[in-house]
Amino acid sequence: MPIFSTGVVASSYLLEEVREKLVNVLRKEGFIAARIDVHYENELSIDKVKLVVRSVVGKPVTFKFQGNKAFKVNEFLDTINIFSRRIPFGSNTVNLLIENMGLLYRRSGYLYASISKQQSLSDDGSRLIFTITIDEGKKVHVSEVSVKGNSEISLEQIETAFLNAGEVYYRDMFHPDFAVSENIREHADFLSNYYIHEGYPDVRVESRIESTEDEDKVRIIYTIEEGRSNRGDWVIVEGIPDEVEEPEIPKTPYSLTKANDYIREVLNALRRAAYFNPIINSSLISDGTQLKFLVFPGEKSTVDKIIFEGNVVVSEETLRKNLSLKEGSPWEAKNIQESRLKLLKTGLFSNVDIHEEKNGSDTKRTLRIVVKEKPLQTLQLGGGLNSEYGLHIFGEGSDMGLFKDGRSLSLRLDAYYDSVNTDVGRSAVNLRYLDPTFGGSNVSFTEDLRYVKQSLANQEFDLDRVSLTTAFYDTMRSGLTLSAGHTIFEERLNDVSPDAILSPLDYGVLNISSLAATLRYDKRDSALIPTRGFFASLDAGLASEMIASDANYYSLNGKFSYLIPLHLFDRRFVISLASRLASAWTFDGTPEIPISQRFYAGGRTSVRGFSENSLGPRGLNGSVIGGDVLAVNNIQFNYLMNDSFAWHSFFDFGNIYLREREIDMTDLRKGTGLGMEYLSPVGPIGIDIGFPLQRRAGESSYRIYFTVGTLF
């Protein structure tokens, strides 16, 4: 089968493609040492070239494996990247293969696996044959890890040092599944380096694996000879300028290594504050147990010139407006990083690089800012399946060319097809104005004009709504964001189920004007696919006749989620917990929260196992009324099968309550189930199947949900 046909464009990509395909073909036939050279040679014609292939294939090789039960042949060959490796294999290939096979077995618990090889020729002498024989032995687990000989440094301190290096690293040291010699040597080296850092320069650490009475288990023992101590009890630092953030002085007793680390931290702090040529003198005082550092910071470096590159449409004025420094400013790292983030925040650039250039002076530097502009007009089209609303189709166009300074206008259309009603159940159109750096600050400002038409099988009313939202967003510090705004809308409520009506605010035309504020604190390791950390948010809202609202009410809505990796059991196992509590209160004569503003629960984002918005109080004819109190809890056990897929089991419980009726917080609806997720670059995309516990009349025995994003 030909690799390519004549007449194709002669590109460097084609050369690489031909080389890779030829190498793969040859390696599949056993020519693992094959060397392929592919290049072009000029023809007489000006627009044609000849593609020339030169090869040295060597003698083909066959690998035969005997005794392997735990692994397949392709798993062995993958350890040497038999088909993806670019460099040809040499005479040491079989030794490399056996070495990697041994590591593969040890990492899987086959501590006593032995591997041998035998070399021969085929009958016609044309092919090398390597017969690799494996005696796998039994799988052996680690029953205990002990550290002996540590008298000056406690086991708790040692454990803390490993934990600071990472939870996975800590687990591999103190709770390993298997005894892997490479890992054990690495941990012994870590112990040795830790002792040296703590002031024991002559420390010796030895490790060994011991058998136990149970032949399927072993123990790992680390033995420490601490040696002499070379530590002091005090550090004195003088001369650091007031505006420099002084690093934390090492805790006593200090070692020479700690002192050197501290000096490096001081130098880095000075450089961040634009002191690029400091001098630090050190001396021993008292009886030699106290160390004094005297800092001479030198002169501050400043920005002498700012040069921009790559901006074609965006003006230099816009670039300068989004910088946190100018000519003559101190060359401070935090201002340079802040400038880069502000430029990216405008949305005008896909990349921003900032380079330093010296001007022949130790104290004056040129700032070169290289940007890559984004298209100022974008159009996005897409679709999907939403468990609550149905088939989803959307389109969004955005234009930053009107302002060319980061501000944008966007128009978005959404439509959801409700298969129950066989009609468009929800449609929305919104026009949005965004200023990501309002008034030259880090605050974002938005105006959102929106029209929504909604007629869903899982709601007791239809509505047509026109709304205008004005909001400000501010990231105050790492993980902490604050937003505040005002929304005014007019909605027409139609086809309201009679037994879901609690007051005149539940039908006809309703005008609501409300103020809202949200505080969020996010300390998860990833907002898209979190595996550890916590998230907390608090929403507050107020609607009042004083700001032209037909109803008077206020609300609080709090959510907290926490993700805990369970490394003691399996490093890919995570337990996720989430709680949401919300309440709304009326005042000044408003009888009930309007039906469109009440709380609802049940479904993929609250209590799985139930249909969307199906929980809580019901009317005389069984209609869902909604409530003014919400309580929902989610417990989920996640297992990361690999970097792309995860499965989980869950247990959800919660309910909706109405104050005019009895609030019984023990009346909780519960659901459980399983799910699978694809961990995409934009977040998890998955499917859940939920089963209600203590199912009531009219409730389905199971529900299937399509999910995007995370509950936690």
TrEMBL record:
<dbReference type="InterPro" id="IPR034746">
    <property type="entry name" value="POTRA"/>
</dbReference>
<keyword id="KW-1134">Transmembrane beta strand</keyword>
<dbReference type="GO" id="GO:0009279">
    <property type="term" value="C:cell outer membrane"/>
</dbReference>
<keyword id="KW-0812">Transmembrane</keyword>
<keyword id="KW-0677">Repeat</keyword>
<dbReference type="InterPro" id="IPR039910">
    <property type="entry name" value="D15-like"/>
</dbReference>
<dbReference type="InterPro" id="IPR010827">
    <property type="entry name" value="BamA/TamA_POTRA"/>
</dbReference>
<protein>
    <recommendedName>
        <fullName>Outer membrane protein assembly factor BamA</fullName>
    </recommendedName>
</protein>
<keyword id="KW-0732">Signal</keyword>
<feature type="domain" description="POTRA">
    <location>
        <begin position="301"/>
        <end position="374"/>
    </location>
</feature>
<dbReference type="Pfam" id="PF01103">
    <property type="entry name" value="Omp85"/>
</dbReference>
<dbReference type="Pfam" id="PF07244">
    <property type="entry name" value="POTRA"/>
</dbReference>
<dbReference type="GO" id="GO:0071709">
    <property type="term" value="P:membrane assembly"/>
</dbReference>
<dbReference type="InterPro" id="IPR023707">
    <property type="entry name" value="OM_assembly_BamA"/>
</dbReference>
<keyword id="KW-0472">Membrane</keyword>
<dbReference type="InterPro" id="IPR000184">
    <property type="entry name" value="Bac_surfAg_D15"/>
</dbReference>
<keyword id="KW-0998">Cell outer membrane</keyword>
